[in-house]
Amino acid sequence: MKKVLSYLKGYGKETVLAPLFKMLEACFELFVPLVMAKIIDVGIYNKDMGYVLRMCLVMVLLGVIGLTCSLTAQYFSAKAATGFGTGLRSALFKHITSLSYTEIDTIGTSTLLTRMTSDINQIQTGVNLVLRLFLRSPFIVFGAMIMAFTIDVKSAMTFVVTIPALSVVVFGIMLITIPLFKKVQNRLDRVTLLTRENLSGARVIRAFNREEKEFAEFDGATDELMKVQLFVGKISAFLNPVTYVIINLATVAIIWIAGGQANKGIITQGQVVALVNYMSQILVELVKLANLIINITKSIACGKRISAVFDTEPSIVSGKNATENTLAAGNGKENTGAEATDCVTFKNVNLKYKGSGADSLTGLDFTVRHGETVGIIGGTGSGKSSLVNLIPRFYDATEGQVLVDGVDVKDYDLKDLRARVGVVPQKAVLFAGTIAENMRYGRNDATDEEIMEALDIAQAKEFVESKDGGIEFKITQGGKNLSGGQKQRLTIARAVVKKPEILILDDSASALDFATDAALRKAISTRIKESTVFIVSQRASTIMAADKIIVLDDGEVCGIGTHKELIDQCEVYKEICMSQLSEKEMGR
Questions:
Q1: Which of 64, 170, 409, 424 has a CA-to-CA distance to 364 between 20 and 30 Å?
Q2: C-alpha to C-alpha distance for 354 and 427, rounded to whole angstroms
Q3: 3-class DSSP state for residue 34?
Q4: Residue 391 · residue 361 · CB < 8 Å
Q5: pLDDT mean by block of 10 residues, the chain; 588 residues
Q6: Burial code of 509-522, b = ≥16 C-beta within 10 A, e = fewer?
């Protein structure tokens, strides 16, 4: 929680002024019963209407001053709470983006969304309420008790008994409900996950007529959420009735004791009314405090969930002496000799995903030279994407080394390493904005001419020019107004604009027809000669012209060589080719 609350530091003035003005409001409120007592004991007793009217004006003045203080406090508390929420949300988003794929996979996207939205909103509300009420309510409670002692000590002893009894009830229920609110938020994570899955997979659900199943699963998740919320609500609901019972019993005791004191002439009738008013003030404030405690309890539970994300450190960070290693890698490319031409080297690399029972990649050992085009092929689940994800350090090898320009990727500065690599992922992801804005995601200073050249290489120039506005055509969120093939070509162009040293195409042409795929491969081989290209594909025709082909089978390399060499030497590759190509296409 300290990490979460640290984002209030920039609002020190507001966090002081908000409760201060609330306490000023409370002070004026505490004077009201005394004024009422004077009206009864002096004005009404002596039938002095002038005195009554003057005291009524005093009460109106106290109300106006109190309202002004309350509005001022609300302004400062809202400013502090919204600023705190903005800072916390930005910091959490920045921290999440610093996490590696491993941490994001472990925590889960749905729960991260809930923590970024619902949890932070709850904490923001809690901060607002605390600044306005956390000091005001106790101040009124104890202030009313002190004012009662100034009227009559014997009657005021009722307050001494009542307040601790109420404190036990309020804080006892709070301690019970804190862990239960965590369960509520966890159930909310589940509902968010199902909602996200159903919205993103709506077409699949309808295609397979699985609406009823999804309805049932969603209803089950929401029922679980409802049950936990009802259980917590029932416990929290005890606060108000128990509070009312204790306060009303205390009010009866006040009237009983103070009435006896008035009959004896020790206190006046107006002072009896003042004591009852003070007890009523305590009732109102404790009801507010009870609701405040419920909100604070929720906020604490949410704060702990957010703190857990902040406590999750990224497993992939820049290496020590990263700048020197990056410079050494850059100098290495300019040197002569055999090793100077090595671009990417895998040395006995194993990869095991967190929580997995077995290695996904085992014993990878190969070298790729600068300017080579490398094809990676294998069956589904053979580890093709896992292999290329090790190069830009989306994941780290559990054993062995991955070298880029002779330097272990773990020793690079992450920004420098990823600046050398252009990645086109399996899923084509585009952002809301123009085509040009999406292209400059690869390189901010790319000119329109460079963008058009990249679009031409990616076989996207023709359809972009046919759009209204050309490269200024607006893409909707997720590229919903483009076809699958168009999105893939734009993501390829975005990587090409970057002019990376290493270009990774991770099964990025699966939605393209064979003619477009062939034209794309030809353009990449003839017009991007300075880049080392990794092409991951299920199609043998896509990678058969590569300088080197790596064949994977169940996470292991079962063949490395050219198409012709592998046809003769690697059974796995031969089977793949025979299932997709004719004898003529295979070159036999």
A1: 424
A2: 22
A3: helix
A4: no
A5: 80 88 87 86 85 90 90 92 92 89 82 86 90 83 84 84 81 77 80 83 85 89 89 80 82 85 84 84 76 80 87 82 57 46 89 84 91 89 90 90 91 89 88 90 88 91 89 87 88 90 86 84 84 89 88 90 89 88 71
A6: bbbbeeebbbebbe
How many whole angstroms separate alpha carbon 180 and alpha carbon 187?
11
- Please name every residue paired with 401 in a beta bridge, in sequence order, or none if there are none: 347
Quickly list DSSP for 559-586: EEE-HHHHHHH-HHHHHHHHHHS-HHHH
Q: Cα separation of 156 and 112, whole Å?
A: 51
DSSP code per residue over 183-235: HHHHHHHHHHHHHHHHHHTHHHHHHTT-HHHHHHHHHHHHHHHHHHHHHHHHH
Structure tokens at 417: 């390493």
CB-CB contact of 453 with 465 (8 Å): no
Two structure tokens written together for 143: 């202030």
The C-alpha angle 235, 236, 239, rounded to 5 degrees, equals 110
End-to-end CA distance of the chain: 68
Q: In the numeric block, which tokens belong to residue 84?
A: 């705190």
**Residues 6 or more apart in contact with residue 138 via CB below 8 angstroms:** 289
